[in-house]
Amino acid sequence: MNAARFISFWTGFCSLSLEIAWVRLYGYVNQSTPQAFAYVLAIYLLGIALGAQIGKRVCQFPQRQDIEKASVLVLFVGAVVAVMSPWAFLGSKELALDELVAPLGIFLTAAALSVLFPVTHHLGTPQQLAGSDVGKGRHFSRVYIMNVSGAALGPLVTGYVLLEFLTITQTFAFLAAVIFLLACAAGCLYGQGNKLPMQGSALLCLGLMLVGGYWSWSDPHALARSWAITQGEAVVAVHENRHGIITIAESQVTGIQPFIDYSVYGGNVYDGKVNVDLERNTNGLERLLALHVLQPEAKKVLILGLSIGSWLAVVEGFPGVEQIDVVEINPGYLALARQFEAQRSALEDPRVRLHIDDARRWLKYNPQEKYDLILMNTTWHWRANISMLLSQEMMALTSRHLTDMGVLAFNATGSVDAFYTASTVFKETRRYQNFIYGAQWDPFTQAQSLQAWERLYQVTVAGKPGFSREGGFVEKYAKVPFLKVEHVLEELDRSPEVIRDDNMLVEYKYGRK
């Protein structure tokens, strides 16, 4: 076995795998903002540059055995950094040093393994060719292609396999274990395994690995739970897979009849509530109910984004609904939704058809499907990749899936540009609270009457009437106006702009700073 090529492959694999792990962790901590990926990438590249410079100096050692010994020691250091840096990042949170420790951890992770890049190429050139150009390129290229192959395979295996079956906490520990085993293998291949200093380094590294591994496997969701931003609510459930991290937090709702409610967070940002009681409305359900007011004859409904399933549980209570298609990219939501009675019942409704897929892809490959109502369960307008849901192209795609009397609704989360973008696609658009409604006809004029809102008394939840006549909730919701886009534009101190796939307007230019 060629030791240099073997080490080159696995250092490439582990280095890029750890970059994916840091993108997941740092992105989660920063609530999935698009800048998080760019930040990790920039720090990682700086670490690679410094590590390569250190590796260049290592290659200048006079004795080949010294270079081999240094490469093994670097791998031991890399293993310790990989397993301990996320915990150091977490520990710095209480000291308010996380903004310093995070880039340091990312930087050291990249630097430690990139030291081996020039070293493996140097060791991969036979000594008899050291002073000759003949054959040198061939040996260099073989080491290089192994490194590139490992670097290409690492993100695929980590992104699609490791993060699907391991938590982010366990992923760091697993990759650190791979680096540790690589160091041990390198020590044996280079004939360093029987040297006392190398054995001592291995034992020290193993001890630190066991500590980090114990922390990681005794509480596999430790990093996700500890970094969860839940506004003081206690985290009671965590689900991690390759699509992201979902947390559920418990809160006590006070009032005349106190009760326990649950908040859902996807990617560490608020997704909604579990509660589907229309009178104990903690979930802004009136925005959803407005769809029944606008199109009371709806038979086919499409929901893009299941989340915890609360909106599905309400929509299935709309009178006359015969079919509900739900497209959800993250199956983790289904597992969590089934823990709650109303949501589990909604998922088992024979009218409901679940599709685990990307919403945009599903719409593209099912052009024949037309719906009376389309509800996009969109997240915050400043999150990474949200332009794929709020763009003019996406609005046009959903419009083609509406019937002649169909209505689209989505949560703009306060983005006036999202409202304006919808108005460039639909003939009629309105905003009700922070929801945007679009249609190629006018469903809004008739919705101004109280009589239209009284249809909500026919809506049921879990087979029971959603509203009592004495509550006055329906009358309250009927008083909230549907605003035209020109009224909302007055809120801006600039001209509105159209969100497109290629400008990522709400993610960067007008995103969260």
Describe this structure in words.
The protein is of the alpha/beta class. It is built from 21 helices and 13 strands. It has a seven-stranded mixed sheet with strand order 7-6-5-8-9-11-10, sandwiched between helices. It has a four-stranded antiparallel sheet with strand order 1-2-3-4. Helix 1 (3-29) runs antiparallel to helix 4 (98-114), helix 1 (3-29) packs antiparallel against helix 5 (116-123) and helix 1 (3-29) packs antiparallel against helix 7. The longest helix is centred in the first third of the chain and has 30 residues, at 136-165.
Short description:
The protein is of the alpha/beta class and 513 residues long. The chain is 51% helix and 15% strand.
Topology of this structure?
Layout: H1 3-29, H2 34-58, H3 64-91, H4 98-114, H5 116-123, H6 136-165, H7 168-189, H8 196-218, H9 222-226, E1 234-241, E2 244-253, E3 259-266, E4 269-273, H10 285-294, E5 300-304, H11 310-315, E6 323-328, H12 332-337, H13 341-347, E7 352-356, H14 359-365, E8 371-376, H15 387-390, H16 392-399, E9 402-411, H17 416-423, E10 428-432, E11 435-439, H18 450-453, E12 460-461, E13 464-465, H19 473-478, H20 485-488, H21 505-509
Parallel strand pairs: 5-6, 5-8, 6-7, 8-9
Antiparallel strand pairs: 1-2, 2-3, 3-4, 9-11, 10-11, 12-13
- Please state the average pLDDT score: 91
Number of strands: 13
Strand order of the largest sheet: 7-6-5-8-9-11-10
Kindly provide the radius of gyration, computed on alpha-carbon positions and rounded to a whole number of angstroms. Answer: 28 Å
Q: Major beta sheet, specifics?
A: 7 strands, mixed
Low-confidence stretches: none
Classify the secondary structure makeup into a structural class. alpha/beta
Helix content: 40-55%
Number of H/I helices? 21
Strand content: 15-25%
Shape: elongated
How far apart lie the N and C ends? 51 Å
